[in-house]
């Protein structure tokens, strides 16, 4: 244990790395679908961000994911339950909205089209991530994919937590902006075809 890492720490880091890879592969590609479900229910974007972040936090706190048969359904269930709890705490939440959310079940397995779309979305995010400056890319990967805390990243890279927070913000903003630009491309192509 001369280098400061023992077998327990290495095992913990390896487990966290495996969990982060599982989340990136099995859950993250389905996030747009979950966000769209929230938007349809007129949930504010900042609330959606909080719910999704809370759901990711609950997943990364699991000791194992071996018991999860359908990752996207499990994640959706967490998001739905968090929303239901939030609405119940609000005194003005309509009863029918709560009952609709609680009774909704996402039991369908993804169609082949959804699976392809998921794979393409994952590849798109990875391509956008690769375009970030090296330091920003690494910080975003550690925070959003591997699930490190801001403090862990700051200690690991020898920078302040504020610098980590800023790099995550810059990176996520760049990825969202790149995603939006890609989403607008077919619309622009469609518009130009209609003019001709």
Automatic annotation (TrEMBL):
A Pfam family matched in the record: Sigma70_r4_2
GO biological process entries: DNA-templated transcription initiation
InterPro entries per record: RNA_pol_sigma-70-like (IPR039425), RNA_pol_sigma-70_dom (IPR014284), RNA_pol_sigma70_r4_t2 (IPR013249), RNA_pol_sigma_r2 (IPR013325), RNA_pol_sigma_r3/r4-like (IPR013324), WH-like_DNA-bd_sf (IPR036388)
Limits of the RNA polymerase sigma factor 70 region 4 type domain: 123-167
Entry's Gene Ontology molecular function annotations: DNA binding; sigma factor activity
Superkingdom per UniProt: Bacteria
Keywords: Sigma factor, Transcription, Transcription regulation
Family membership: Belongs to the sigma-70 factor family. ECF subfamily.
UniProt protein name: RNA polymerase sigma factor 70 region 4 type 2 domain-containing protein
Protein source organism: Novosphingobium sediminis
């Amino acid at each position: 244990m001369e280098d400061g890492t023992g077998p327990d720490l290495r095992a913990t880091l390896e487990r966290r790395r495996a969990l982060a890879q599982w989340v990136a592969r099995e859950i993250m590609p389905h996030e747009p679908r979950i966000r769209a479900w929230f938007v349809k229910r007129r949930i504010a974007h900042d609330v959606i961000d909080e719910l999704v972040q809370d759901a990711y936090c609950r997943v990364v706190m699991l000791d194992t994911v071996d018991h999860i048969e359908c990752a996207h359904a499990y994640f959706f269930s967490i998001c739905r339950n968090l929303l239901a709890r939030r609405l119940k705490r609000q005194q003005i939440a309509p009863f029918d909205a709560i009952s609709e959310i609680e009774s909704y079940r996402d039991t369908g397995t993804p169609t082949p089209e959804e699976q392809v779309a998921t794979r393409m979305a994952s590849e798109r995010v990875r391509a956008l991530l690769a375009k970030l400056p090296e330091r920003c890319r690494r910080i975003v990967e550690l925070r959003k994919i591997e699930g490190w805390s801001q403090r862990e990243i700051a200690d690991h890279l020898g920078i302040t937590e504020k610098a980590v927070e800023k790099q995550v913000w810059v990176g996520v903003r760049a990825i969202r902006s790149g995603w939006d630009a890609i989403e607008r491309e077919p619309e622009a192509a469609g518009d130009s075809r209609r003019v001709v």
